[in-house]
# Entry
Amino acid sequence: MKIVFFGPPGSGKGTQAKLLAKELNILHLSTGDILRDKLSDGDSLSIKLKEIMSSGNLVSDEILNQIIADKLISKECSNGYILDGYPRTILQSEFLLSFAKSNDINLNIIFNFKIDFKLVEKRIIYRSEQEQRSDDNIDVIKTRLDKYTKETYPVSQFFSQNFSENFFTIDASQEVSKIQKELINIIKKGQK
Ligand code: AMP
# Structure
């Protein structure tokens, strides 16, 4: 099972992806988590990444595409995966689709998490108190939401048009357990 999650930062897609990956026994492939792991390397790349990520901007497509290409052909992904936070730009989406085509990969389901930006701001402020992520504060969240609107929203629109039968929009303002049930129901229906 290969699943793609779209949604703005703070829409809860990371939480849902973790739960769903466990339920389906597939890999939760969060590019944000992968990049955050690299921050502790202490090399010049990690310094550059930290600067970009803590400002709310996007890391280059080249770096992200390489990360994804390496992961998708790895053993960890053999049972399936949830792409959480990728693709985020048109170039990433083009890369993913051409990579999928040449490697005979079928993306089964696309979930699009929809949520009011005001609610996102509230959630992010709360998360910053809990997790102390350097990119979770009100100044940075504005940049992150702006990047989502300009760069990632058009990608989700492209997927909604080109994968319309497998594309499902989810009301992300609902409770965690309710959303999780909804995702599982949609997947079950697709398997019948
Ligand atoms: P996330 O945890 O998905 O919100 O990602 C945290 C940060 O990592 C983002 O604000 C970006 O700086 C960077 N990042 C994660 N995924 C991508 C991506 N696909 N393209 C570019 N930057 C990314």
Q: What stands out?
A: Strands lie at 2-6, 27-30, 81-84, 109-114, 167-171. Residues 138-162 form the longest helix (25 residues). Helices lie at 13-24, 31-38, 44-55, 61-72, 90-102, 117-131, 138-162, 176-191. The radius of gyration is 16 Å.
